[in-house]
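Side project, low priority. Logging it here so it doesn't get lost.
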Amino acid sequence: MAVLIASYFLYGKFLDKLTGVDGKAQVPSERLYDGVDYMPLPRWRIFLIQLLNIAGTGPIFGAILGACYGPVAFLWITIGGVLFGAMHDYMAGVISLRNDGKSLSEIIGKYLGGGMHKLSTIVIPLLMVLVGGVFIVTPSQILADKTDFPYMAWVAIIIIYYFVATILPIDKVIGKIYPIFGAALIAMAVMLFGVMVFGDYQIPELTSFANMHFNAENLPIIPTLFISIACGAISGFHATQSPLMARCMTNEKQSRPIFFGAMISESIIALIWAGVAMAFFGGVEALNDYMQANGSNAGVAVSLICDTTLGKIGSILAIMGVVIAPITSGDTAFRSARLILADLLHYDQKPIYKRLIVSIPLFAMGVGIAFMEFDVIWRYFAWSNQALSVITLWMITSWLMRRGSRWSIIALIPAICMTYVCSSFFFVSGQFVGMGATPLAYIYGGAATAVIAGLMMYLIRKNIKNEANI
């Protein structure tokens, strides 16, 4: 936790100097104000919105699932959160800010070329709709179990809310309620941290790198841990949310608190939840026994931990964690998809009827996904989310190399590492090829990484050369 906090003042300040943030530069909310998406908001409000946008249930559920691997999870949350996630979120946010708050697919196209632009304009909106669809299903199921309202009634209510939040100006719904729930997410983490410090709990020490997961043979630490703990360390989804906030900022110097600071805050939350999960159940082995008995359902663990340690307040916070957090990620996912398509089509979003034209097909797809088998959808979401972070990291590398920076290595190394994580997972996991943790699977993963890295460097150099010729 000390390392994460210190990184904000040290590594975050270094990134400020590297990017040359300018407090006098004109920002998109001033130059392109439209009263809908481009709209200045206070820094504290943007920070809390960004935190809730990128968090959802990620730093809670992902951290609990990652804790099943033991205290080694603390290392990935810390190292990944600083050198991978916070850098990724900060750089993606600054690049969007410098490009009129453009959506992720647009800046990918600008710095990686037309082929990657076409791919990202297909993949990213689909991923956003997938997120939105997934986060219709889970809150509806939980609310139906806890109330007298039927499942379909909750589905309808959540869809209507999503539609309203996606269509209305950002200050009308998101700008008003997100800061409240963002503060609640922080409060939950602070209270649980207090439980660990002052309660009769002991967090296991890191004594080895052994795989302690109950399904260790099929879910090896490398690469599965890095897929399980996504939002608490690095997540491609975050880069899709940054343009929403880049359109609301009033000063470039807000980049560190909003982009870097929100990610570090999420890593701290994930660190606390991983520690609580190990300590509450009396160790990693007991945590694994509980998760195996409950079908790896992290939501059940969240409810039990909060109810037991925080009483009635805990019950309320647990509901917020497993219901409100995914809903607030779902609506911004749809909003992000709307902006991506609008940017692609150069379609002005100030008139409400134009927002409806873009949004209605997206919601039709999201509703369709909501009625698909949940396990199938979720199984592939985590991997595709990290694959998106790979593309974003290569885009950041291109941006730095284009500027002639000798520090492009700060993005290049994470890009290669995450390329290997996603490539090896493709061969190891039963979701795809299913070779298991065999030497051949890791060799294939390494070969795929080399091919992808070579292709990306070719695209980067080609893009820089074309820019120089222009």
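Brief comment: The chain has a mean pLDDT of 91.
Revisit when time allows.
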